[in-house]
Amino acid sequence: MDTRRDVFQAIADPTRRAILALIAMQAMTPNAIAGHFNTSRQAVSKHIQILAECQLLTYEQTGREIVYHFNPVKMKEIDIWVEQFRKMWEVKFEQLDDVLNKNNDIKQ
């Protein structure tokens, strides 16, 4: 499948994040995935299609059965992008801790 959607656009939807969480635990068929949601099978299939287009899910087909698998390599790309912000915020929180500790020392 060609990737035509942005990965971040795909994970912005809570249903798609829930699907990723399910499939990260174990590979599943579309019907098994749909059984976890209170929505139509077609709606779940559309979410699966978007995740597959973004390569967050891979699939294997055996006869008429399709089984979807989580793609940790693609998810790692998201983690790498988020990591830069995680590091930045850790520095900011450390600076805030320093200010609060100094302020607390002054009051005592």
Describe the structure.
The protein has 108 residues and is mainly alpha-helical. The chain has helices at residues 7-11, 14-25, 30-34, 41-53, 72-107; strands at 57-62, 65-70. The chain folds into two domains: 1-70, Winged helix-like DNA-binding domain superfamily/Winged helix DNA-binding domain (Arc Repressor Mutant, subunit A, Orthogonal Bundle), CATH 1.10.10.10; 72-108. It is built from five helices and two strands, in the order H-H-H-H-E-E-H. The chain has a two-stranded antiparallel sheet with strand order 1-2. A hairpin with a 2-residue loop joins strand 1 and strand 2 (65-70). The protein is elongated. 16% of the residues are buried.
Per CATH, the superfamily of the largest domain is Winged helix-like DNA-binding domain superfamily/Winged helix DNA-binding domain
- Low-pLDDT regions: none
Q: Tell me the overall shape.
A: elongated
Give the spatial strand order of the biggest sheet: 1-2
| End-to-end C-alpha gap | 64 Å
Question: Beta-strand percentage?
Answer: 5-15%
Q: How many separate helices?
A: 5
| CATH level-two architecture of the largest domain | Orthogonal Bundle
Rounded radius of gyration (Å): 20 Å
The topology string of helices and strands comes to: HHHHEEH
Number of strands: 2
* Largest sheet entry: 2 strands, antiparallel
Mean pLDDT: 89
CATH class division of the largest domain: Mainly Alpha
Count of discrete structural domains: 2
Q: Would you give the CATH topology of the largest domain?
A: Arc Repressor Mutant, subunit A
| Portion of residues within helices | 55-70%
By helix and strand content, what is the structural category? mainly alpha
